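ugh ok fine here u go
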Amino acid sequence: MESVRPESVGSDRPEPVLLTEPADGVPPVVDTPAALSAAAAALAGGRGPVAVDTERASGYRYSQRAYLVQLRREGAGTVLVDPVAIDGGLDPLIPALADAEWVLHAASQDLPCLAELDLRPSALFDTELAGRLAGFERVSLGALVERVLGYQLEKGHSAADWSRRPLPEEWLVYAALDVELLTDLRSAMRDELDRQGKLDWAVEEFEAVRTAEPPGPRSEPWRRTSGIHRVRSPRQLAAVRSLWQARDDFARERDIAPGRVLPDSAIVQAAQTGPKTEGELTALPVFGGKQQRRRASMWLQALRAARRLDNDELPAASAPHDGPPPANRWADRDPDAAARLSAARAALAEIAERHSLPTENLLLPDLVRRTCWSPPEDRDAGSVAAVLRDKGAREWQIGLTAEALGEALRTSAS
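structure:
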């Protein structure tokens, strides 16, 4: 394929038009079974793709459930559904949307909470992913709508506590605007991908997102505590683990975001300091606050549990992993592998540049590292293609990269 560049879509437009409210106004929130049945009938009678979005309460709640579901379809208008208020779930929407292509922006963020409501698309178009494949540098919903359609969305409530009830009117305006132009954006991005010869690539990518299995639980999620790199000894790591688990149990039970129960910085400081009494604990920043004083016995119990562990019960200094070591250690551990990785990265960067793609969308960095660390015995394009396919690469990715990656793997073949 010849080198392609994203067209300056909308570059000849005047200044973007600021949208401050939906064209048809903000519809009443669907919060009863009767209203849901009526909304489902309207959506079933609509035409074409359906725009879908959700609002969660990340940063406020432990769960990632949807607190508002926004839908828009030609002929039906915009529907705002409160899934918390409706007993019995959103089942009427399942047949209403069964034949529709769903249009989402950054679909992988919304699909899990929609699946919790038994809402799953049979076909998908992801406008953010479309923007990446088209080579646009800025792919937020607002950036794409402005560049491609010439409108500026009213923003400002993405990080709000959507579990709040009643929802303020200005929040509902924001939520409705998120789906107001989504199907128009889908049409424009589809045309752009088709112009660049990338539409088939996008179809494969959208299907991969739609059918992706949800990630399993991390084996040691406490190791993601911010600032844990400052904790040196196994005993202190045990304290981090114990405090993290106590916080997680408390947060889950009360459906509060863990960071609102106790910040990571306080966990790390307590692990490093090792307070043994309530006075020593509450003398630390954060723990001296009113709420933390009430929870002091819980934190002290967690710290004591870590101190009582036998040495063979302490966590390892680093997390176990089934992949290759960090790439910055390859030169010492396996210089040939380091040479392969360097050659592979250079080849993939050139292909990505030629096709106006982010390198990480051309081929996942983790897949590249694994293939370079443990290459197939036969390093021809066919063998490499088989490895990439087995590890989940899409056919368009394999077609673009297998030959060049095979050549890179032969750089230091023994």
